[in-house]
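Data availability (excerpt). The following record was deposited with the supplementary files.
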Amino acid sequence: MTDFLLGTDAANEETVRLPAAVLWDMDGTLVDTEPYWIAAEYDLVESHGGTWADEFAHELVGNALEVSARVILDRTGIELTVPEVVQALLERVVSRVDEQVPWRPGAPQLLAELRALGVPSALVTMSYRSLAEAVVGQLPDESFHSLVTGDEVARGKPDPEPYLVAARQLGVRPEDCIAIEDSPTGVTSATAAGVPTIAVPNVVPVPHIPGAVHVETLAGVSAADLTRLVAPATSPQGTAEAPGDLGAPSSRR
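Predicted structure:
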């Protein structure tokens, strides 16, 4: 962690501790693309004569794409290969992102503040680089110092490898970083890597996982809030106070 002086003048300066880096999940955390993925799954499966359901789609949230593709094939029996399913889904989602990036509340603002303060960010996603670059390409230059994508790691989430790779690429210790995730799979990956984690549930509930705290939204969360939010990460409750709503426990959708 690094100490920073924040404030507009000497009288108002405040020393705060910031993480060495922030490691961001993408789908459902930085951008609300889970509806894009679910729509792509329905379209792909139904175009090949199969049937799909929301309960199946929710099983895939946070998974490596190859894992999701195998689940789709096992659930539906459509006659495609795993690489064909992955490519078809990616093409559909990238096309939607090219039309409009659905940012999650508070995420672009927090990312911009971290950039201004010189705190590096890494994107740690199980989506492939083609989609990650489509999202990052619509942000200011140097918003992310590193991209770790699902097609470039040997073991995807929930394995800790993606987060360990991100920390290594940035030259920082995992325990000095903070991860932001929205799914049980992602939170498991980050905490297993030893990264204090903020869970912001979106499409699926996230149970209590040691090493993680829950907040309802990133809206209103500042860089100065991050280390305070993860302070209770090892407490039995694992619940953080939301900025602007101090003392109120966050929901666990």
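Summary of structural features: The first helix runs from residue 34 to 47.
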